[in-house]
Amino acid sequence: MSGERIAVEARDVGRRFGRTWALRDCTFRLPAQRVVAVVGANGAGKSTLMNIVGGVLPATTGSLLVGGRETAPGRRGDGDPAARVALVAQSRPLYRDFSAADMLRFGRHTNRLWDDGRARSWLARFGVPLDRRCGRLSAGHRAQVSLALALGARPAVLVLDEPLASLDPVARAEVAGELLAEAADSGMTVMLSSHVVAELSGVGDHLLILSAGRAVLSGDVDVLLAGHVRLTGPRAPQPPGPGTVVHARHTARQSTFTVRLPGTDPHTPLVAPGWATRPLTLEELVVTYVRAPHVPGPHRPDERPGAPERV
Ligand SMILES: Nc1ncnc2c1ncn2[C@@H]1O[C@H](COP(=O)(O)OP(=O)(O)OP(=O)(O)O)[C@@H](O)[C@H]1O
């Protein structure tokens, strides 16, 4: 990730609610101009992280930087374009008696920087009627109004907590495509969370996996996929080649290892007699890490250029 502009950086971020640590020791860097899928099981800490990045919840420990500036509740980075954040929270508060057009007017009045054309074209793109009261819109259209409001605020980082849940599969794919295009065109970084792995197919180009409040993996999707293999062969305590075992499964005669590859060329095929090697699908990669809260072995971001970043 060296040389790339960093949009969001977490340094040992933790958040405690009473005795529960919702997030613990989270350290990661997210490059700018990406759509980052933040994935984790229920209760993994996604909403907590999104709210800290969105500046509505303080961290208990560590620091969270957006555009190089530390976030804090009430500070939305208005003065610094690189630190401007817009959050669409899970609850997505909208005034029920306001029409979508009223909500855009509200957005214009409450944001020092406001791009009305961007917000309106988003609503037009998804066929949201401007004159209907929000209380009478479908859940999917209400989600689109929240997205349009957030986009109109011209954020450098757009934080979307479970934005796809209320959308049908067609709208979900369209929203994902539009967000990728918005990120590419405007330089904006999008963080979107989900606990549904199937939702993620083709959605993000960068992945951040949370497990039990910890960030267990972060990196560009293609690099992460190229950096892992699944090996199947005769029952053995260890795989036949180098790498960090992320997951192992054994039957009486067979062993299957999911391995994070070391070295400079993740594409080098492993040739071992009796062993079959294949790449992981995105779903397999996510499921493996979501279920593996304590993946063994340090994997430093600077081990090799473009390496998957162990966080
Ligand atoms: N306000 C709160 N008070 C007490 N505990 C909380 C609070 N918010 C979150 N938690 C706890 O922190 C942990 C992480 O919650 P969080 O909502 O961040 O997870 P999540 O990954 O977003 O889950 P989900 O996918 O179910 O929305 C959970 O154990 C949750 O019970």
Automatic annotation (TrEMBL):
The keyword Transit peptide does not apply. SMART domains: AAA (SM00382). Residues 8-237 form the ABC transporter domain. Pfam families: ABC_tran. Gene3D superfamilies: P-loop containing nucleotide triphosphate hydrolases. The keyword Chloroplast does not apply. One of its GO terms (molecular function) is ATP binding. Keywords: ATP-binding, Nucleotide-binding, Transport. It comes from the Bacteria. This is ABC-2 type transport system ATP-binding protein. It comes from Actinacidiphila rubida. The lineage of its organism: Bacteria, Bacillati, Actinomycetota, Actinomycetes, Kitasatosporales.
